[in-house]
């Protein structure tokens, strides 16, 4: 067992605190990763605050993880000591069901292993990336292309694939009109990806405060949803709308922005139920769908695509001691556009 410094939640309401956790000894197919950087996803905050139900405390969250391979198990073939690697939202799955065989491990029919607050194969609760090191089966370790800067790339492991996967699934590309609702951690990466895939990209944000940034990232159009005229002007316009909002919305308003056969994909995961006016869907054979981050093959494809197209998330690097402040800033949408924790500062956080 390896003891490592970490930052943990101890209750739904108390600030996260420095702690230590144990990492298991390497099994034959395990990889030990020295974590360099970890992104702060809004899902981390939903989880520790109990928005999605009770969790096990203390809990170390973080599923946007990058670093270097420090050691490998005896049978590991995919990774070598020193490699630049990443881990995303899943760190295991059954490997045998129809979905796993297709490389859709995120939809494992026997239940995947979430990187944190998940049930590991040995019955323990998984602990995530706000920590100095992690042990993960080699199949769930991604390769980080050399051209991507390690200190900025962590958000791709969740935010990146969460947007790339539906963009690919619903065939976004030249000739398609894509809207992204919410210009946050997920949304801003979605703008860059959709633009690079060749789609016409529109941002639907509450205000125009981030318009210049959105246009610079590749958006063709930018509208404020606080302006009722937005919904009149854009009625029936989009083939695909990706909703990244962390709170509930009037979904029918957005369904009305879909073209015939268009799809509204729910990515943001608030606690409120999704209710939609039936006639909005029926009228133009519109669909409403959900999508979870992505399997291992599409995650690697996304990383390689980002390297090829020079796509790098916009990040603010913070010390571990600033995690609680960063949470508050995420909750007030005061983030440009993803916080990334410099894990080397965990040393000082525990001193
Ligand atoms: P984030 O950085 O906080 O961004 C969310 C954005 O939503 C904000 O920037 C804001 O955009 C908009 N927003 C926030 N509150 C709002 C409100 N009350 N009304 C309307 N718009 C509001 O969060 P994130 O990390 O991108 O995550 C977004 C959501 O996706 C979270 O619920 C998270 O749990 C979920 N998620 C899902 C998956 C998945 O697999 N499906 C993966 C990762 C995350 P504007 O300021 O532009 O309006
Ligand atoms: Zn996430």
Automatic annotation (TrEMBL):
So what does this thing catalyse?
a primary alcohol + NADP(+) = an aldehyde + NADPH + H(+)
UniProt keywords (A-Z) are: Metal-binding, Oxidoreductase, Zinc
What the entry lists under SUPFAM superfamilies is as follows: GroES-like (SSF50129), NAD(P)-binding Rossmann-fold domains (SSF51735)
Required co-factor(s) are: Zn(2+)
Any idea of its EC number? Answer: 1.1.1.2
- Output the superkingdom of the source species: Bacteria
* Domain Enoyl reductase (ER), first and last residues per copy: 11-341
Q: Which PANTHER family match?
A: ALDEHYDE REDUCTASE
Q: Which family does it belong to?
A: Belongs to the zinc-containing alcohol dehydrogenase family.
Query: What's this protein's name?
Result: alcohol dehydrogenase (NADP(+))
Lineage of the native species?
Answer: Bacteria, Bacillati, Actinomycetota, Actinomycetes, Micrococcales
